Amino acid sequence: MIRYIVVACILLSACRPSGSTQVMGASSPEAAVNAFMTAAKAQDLQAMSEVWGSARGSVRETMERTEMERRQLVLISLLCQEGSSLAGSTPGTDGRRMLRVEMTRSGRTVPVVFTTVRGPGDRWFVEDVEVLRLQELCAGR
């Protein structure tokens, strides 16, 4: 009987999360945008949700999972660029940073603004993306 209790304790401790918690967000606005775009290109919803969020933190903690994944799939389909480069950063309201990214597809370049915001733990999140500009790039207009 004691043997079963010992085995049960070992199994339960193995299932318990470790003391470390995963760090969400990125160290800078630029790192947040780069991680967001890299995750979208790889169609990695998990990685994308780590740097997508608001001043309250990651969307993982603030949005219902089905809704989050549905929105991520839409964003992935709109991030159709063949290449991109950071073209500038300007301050926004309430401590936000607006990053202009030049996105290229089929020889066309369209500037797209990503809004980033500082969240918990001094980490940065992509809060918003100019979806209409992304649609313009993907539609080839």
Order of strands across the main sheet: 3-4-5-6
Name the CATH architecture. Answer: Roll
Shape: globular
Q: Note the run of SSEs as H and E.
A: HHHEEHHEEEEH
CATH class: Alpha Beta
Helix content: 40-55%
> Mean of residue pLDDT?
84
For the sheet with most strands, the description reads: 4 strands, antiparallel
Distance from first to last alpha carbon: 72 Å
Number of helices in the DSSP assignment: 6
CATH fold call:
Nuclear Transport Factor 2, Chain: A
Q: Radius of gyration, Cα only, in angstroms?
A: 19 Å
Percentage of residues in strands: 25-35%
Tally of extended strands?
A: 6
Structural class: alpha+beta
Low-confidence stretches: 1-20
**How many separate domains make up the residues?**
1
Q: What's the SSE blueprint?
A:
Elements lengths: L1 H14 L13 H13 L3 H7 L1 E2 L2 E2 H4 L2 H14 L4 E9 L5 E9 L2 E11 L5 E6 L1 H9 L2
Would you give an account of this structure?
The chain has 141 residues and is of the alpha+beta class. It has one domain: Nuclear Transport Factor 2, Chain: A. 43% of the residues lie in helices and 28% in strands. The protein is built from six helices and six strands; from the N terminus they run αααββααββββα. The protein has helices at residues 2-15, 29-41, 45-51, 59-62, 65-78, 131-139; strands at residues 53-54, 57-58, 83-91, 97-105, 108-118, 124-129. The strands form two sheets. A four-stranded antiparallel beta sheet has the order 3-4-5-6. The longest helix is centred in the N-terminal third of the chain and has 14 residues, at 2-15. Residues 1-20 have low confidence and may be disordered.
